[in-house]
Amino acid sequence: MSAVTTRFAPSPTGHLHLGHAHSALFGWQAARRAQGRFLLRIEDIDPGRCRADFERDLLEDLAWLGLRWETPVRRQSEHADDYRAALARLEDAGLVYPCFCTRKDIAAEIARAGHAPHGPDGPLYPGTCRTRSAAERDRRRDAGDAFALRLDVRRAMERAGPLRWHDRGRGWQDATPQILGDVVLARKDTPTSYHLSVTVDDALQGVTLVTRGEDLFFATHLHRLLQALLGLPAPEWHHHGLLTDERGVRLAKRDGARSLRTLRAAGHTPAEVRAMAGFPDAG
Ligand code: GLU
User: Fold this and answer.
1) Cβ(250)–Cβ(242) under 8 Å?
2) 30 and 6 in contact (C-beta within 8 Å)?
3) Cβ 198 under 6 angstroms from ligand 1
4) Domain at 1-78+243-283, CATH homologous superfamily
5) Best residue among 26, 43, 199 to mutate for probing ligand 1, ranked by most atoms within 8 Å of CB
6) pLDDT tens readout for residues 175-196
């Protein structure tokens, strides 16, 4: 196996825009420069938001842009068993607990406490369900109450010990997953989450360099912890900057004007679109 394997991992929830092109080209170029492998993964665990036509269109857009990837493409919706097995390991190790709180319960608990530690994504889960007795958990589960499975991050960190991870742009980082709190790893009806499936998949696909936007920089602290708990190898990371519009606002799928399809329909060539995405020399 060659030394560097990267991947692009879009969710088929809309059409790809220049920001996705930047991210895909970033990973593709890193692999190419190292004569490594470039993989594709479809992150479609959310059936409510993902659509087969978006997946078909994004494959077509990436090929039009000039990207080539190894097959088979990994589609997350086909691998629930892998995520279930990883979750079971964490549950068996006593690192996961069921949380029956609704969003409203969480907001009320935070208001009652008068303060809440904040993480990069907002207030942290206040831990209401962490200390529920086994009997109460069983009773509520048996009653059919909806629940999420949360990671007991403090206990998990104690188990794993100190961890570090390396970003090619920003150097070594001490892992501080507690800044995200007790994150949700799965739900009663969805046996996985972004964090769990991405960690499992990067390992199963043999990814050695995870390239993605810097909006996911903090998530990497948690992914490093999950790797350690699951006995998975740690890759290297390279988080890249995000493309913004002329007002400095990050591009989003709703910005149809910059979708690759719109640019293509307007007559732009793949080379022009690669240049707009920040890669004038790729191709
Ligand atoms: N599926 C994620 C997204 O579309 C990317 C996840 C990753 O690269 O780790 O934002």
Assistant:
1) yes
2) yes
3) yes
4) HUPs (3.40.50.620)
5) 43
6) 999 999 999 999 988 889 999 9
